[in-house]
Task: structure prediction
Amino acid sequence: APAAKPLPGYASFKNADAVIVHSSTTIETKRSAFGAGVVTPTSQLYVRNNLPTPSEAIVADRDAWAVQIDGVKKPRQLSVRELKTMGLETVTMVLQCSGNGRAFFPSKPSGTQWTVGAAGCVVWSGVPVRDVVKALGGVADGMVYMTGTGGEVLPAGLDPKSVLVERSVPLSAMEDALLAWEMNGEPVPLAHGGPLRLIVPGYTGVNNIKYIKQLVFTAKESEAHIMSHGYRISPPGSKGDPSQPSVQEMSVKSWINSPIPEDGNQASGLVQIQGVAFGGMNAVKGVEVSIDGGKTWKQARLVGPDMGRYAWRQFVLQAQLPKGTYQLASRATDVKGNVQPETRGENQSGYNNTSWADHAVTVTVA
Ligand code: MSS
Result:
């Protein structure tokens, strides 16, 4: 096997044994590393950056970081220091890259070959966006999107629109959105968007803008390439464009983290089949597990704390597994009755893979 790539400087605090470094801007949590806790430790949470990480200088004086709020009745710039006086809420949320599960597409879409580890369950604290908007007189008339802009310094000589990380979500997403300065009980690390990050619960990773410097209520979607052409669900063989749906709300998904082939052969006998399940916008209602590749299913038990509708739940099914080879699969259902599908939705860039068949694992019990 090729030598593991080193952790990039801004992510040097990561647990090298728990992650796969794909590149200096893409780091994945190992499937075997999700562990027994419901919250993903910051030291092993995945990273995905579209641009080089900003300088550490931006987290030297976190409270001085400012975000410009526009598209409200009384637009103004607010520092983190001021935001901290305006409200405080905590939300536990699955942060998942739109491309998580891309490696399972047989069409081999270009982009990072994430399996399951471009996801984690994270606790965020900050001020509700709706409180900020209320303090600024409400959303200006005619605005239907909430558009966040990342604070990266853009590479010189390029059209800013071609590289800027700027995303628009429907205004309705404001209800549960936060401007967060804390993650898993600590100031948000630079790697994850400190000093201030927009959190849009239930929406795929890209909509959660790091080092946010501008939050604008707009009548139109952003014209930044990452919004207009990137992250679109386009049919295989065709490029993304504004007519195709954008990656936004996540839907019901689960996968097994143990036992998996990486664990090596299991001793035969009683086995705990464990994994995680989430519903995106809706809480998870239940999870079924199959040991025969989906021919038959048994209801698993939800274990561990319920941290709210946007968090994931851990599940366990005990099974007697005599010597042999098994195809382990999990299939989650959310409270609205949506069932995790067997097949992926084919698309050019390998987004939104929720297929239970793709996430199944083959294990040999010795
Ligand atoms: N933000 C900014 N500012 N920049 C960038 O690049 N990216 C995205 C988000 N945000 C970015 C941002 C993505 S794309 C993702 S996933 C996320 O983020 C991740 O996170 P972390 O913390 O993990 O790194 Mo896909 O859909």
Q: What stands out?
A: The longest strand covers residues 324-334.
